[in-house]
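Notebook p. 47: complex prediction with iron/sulfur cluster.
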Amino acid sequence: MMNKQNLESILNDCIHCGLCLPTCPTYRETGLEAESPRGRIMMMDAALKGELKSQDSFNEHISTCLGCYTCETVCPSGIEYGDLLSHCQTELLKPSHSIKTSILLKIVNRPWLLQLFGFLGALTQRLKIDVLLTKISHQFGGFPQLPFRGFKNSALELYPAIGEKVGSVAFFTGCVMDNLYPNIHEATIRILRWNGYEVHIPKSQGCCGALHHHVGQTKNILDMQKQNIQAFDFVDTIIINSAGCGAELKNYPEGFASKVKDISEFLYNINLSVPENIPTQKAIYDAPCHLIHAQKIDLQPKHILPKFGVELMDFPQSNLCCGAAGSYTLDKSTMSNEILKTKMDDIQNQSKGGLIITANPGCQIQLQKGADLYTENKYSVAHIIEVIDGIYANDSAYADAFKK
Ligand code: SF4
Ligand code: SF4
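Predicted complex, structure tokens below:
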């Protein structure tokens, strides 16, 4: 928790220039000062001084903030807005998230419950009940074909490198990613092994706490940190392919945080094997906020993708939130959908259809939902790892190495 002096000093750094306003998704939608970073900072200042005019209005405007950190990136005064928001959520806000979010938070750090919900979700899809559910609520849209089993339970503890071993890493499987996108985990491990890394999967790892942190429910976060710090004690490098979890893990104590590498950050820094004679394709890259703003990873994916034949199209709004933001789609579904609609309009102004690439499960679901709802299915959405793995798979040696 920050002390009052630190908070006051951050708040005093705001020069009220307003440069952050046009990049704030909630301000873009509403045009309201109270829905902008500057307006929120002024309310936080008042709350800290005990001068709030209305606690309800404060709760409302702070809880509509996506926690996307875009304002931090553009602020000329270097305001650490994320720290202010975290303090507000834990110390100054009345908890107000929905029952759906409360259930989600309970599920994600109970692996057996997560497995059960994953299984039921997969069954719902196989029975085509999901089609009906999507008609009832947008909240069921955008999901991938769910597996009956998550990744970690059936994973090995160690995957050897292919060819000469150049290093050893451990892999953080997470909870949402593990149960929704096990195929992307498998692809990540194939890519690491193909590039000479053995990959450890510590079975005692658990939820990182990102979703809890996002809504200010920090009560059990120290326990989650302790569990993961112990589970990954034996390695120097921890790979993660979910931007939201990566940002959270980089907030752990320094000894652990410095080991965490997003997969694109890692691949950018190694001697990455690049296949020859690869087909080219155009795509839009939409940067997850927790990658570009929270982790400051921007150039790495844009540098790697062209090596795999991807011609990235201009997309100036790539750095703006898609409205996914952890459990925001559950708590603030109307605003979340408005932001998504704007994102899809921005995408359609730049391209006529095709591939959208991202690097976070929440964004992947949200963008796929946006593509289905607002673009007449003109787009498909993929994780950067799916694209790289797909190109590698054109090489028969790669395909043979991982034949089951
Ligand atoms: S850009 Fe920074 S200094 Fe300017 S209003 Fe926004 S938060 Fe304040
Ligand atoms: S974190 Fe995002 S939504 Fe919140 S004030 Fe900053 S730019 Fe706006």
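Notes: The chain has a mean pLDDT of 90. The chain is about 50% helix and 10% strand.
Next step: compare against the earlier run before touching the bench.
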